[in-house]
Amino acid sequence: MPLYLSRFSYTPETWARLIDHPEDRARAAQSYIESVGGKLHGFWYAFGTHDGYSLWEAPDNVSMATVALAISGGGAISSFETTVLLTVGETMEALRTAGQVAYRAPGA
């Protein structure tokens, strides 16, 4: 199954609610991905541009998009970005076949 790295930030209101009622949101994230047949591999909070990161495994892009849309539409998140991660093997396959693409640089 493909892996996905998500970066998210909470709204100020969400942080206020979590301060008043601390809650392990990794458990919630786990239930979301499991509802589409996936798995949560990790959930971290961070300093910086994003409040947190999660590493998910999902059956396919549509399943991951389903979870991302549900989370984004819930109103507690101010930003949610997800990147599809490629394995080294997938990247090697892409490198081997990239030469078959008849790319022409702009203006060439």
Work out the strand percent. Answer: 25-35%
Order of helices and strands: EHHEEHEH
Largest sheet: 4 strands, antiparallel
What's the tally of helices?
Answer: 4
**Residue runs with pLDDT of under 50 for 5 or more positions:** none
Describe the structure.
The structure is a single chain. The chain is α+β, with helices and mostly antiparallel strands. The protein has four helices and four strands; from the N terminus they run E-H-H-E-E-H-E-H. Strands 2-3-1-4 form a four-stranded antiparallel β-sheet.
Layout of secondary structure:
Elements: E1 3-10, H1 12-20, H2 25-34, E2 39-45, E3 52-57, H3 61-72, E4 77-85, H4 88-98
Antiparallel strand pairs: 1-3, 1-4, 2-3
Short description:
With 108 residues, this protein is of the alpha+beta class. The chain contains 4 helices and 4 strands; from the N terminus they run βααββαβα.
Key terms:
108 residues; elongated; alpha+beta; 39% helix
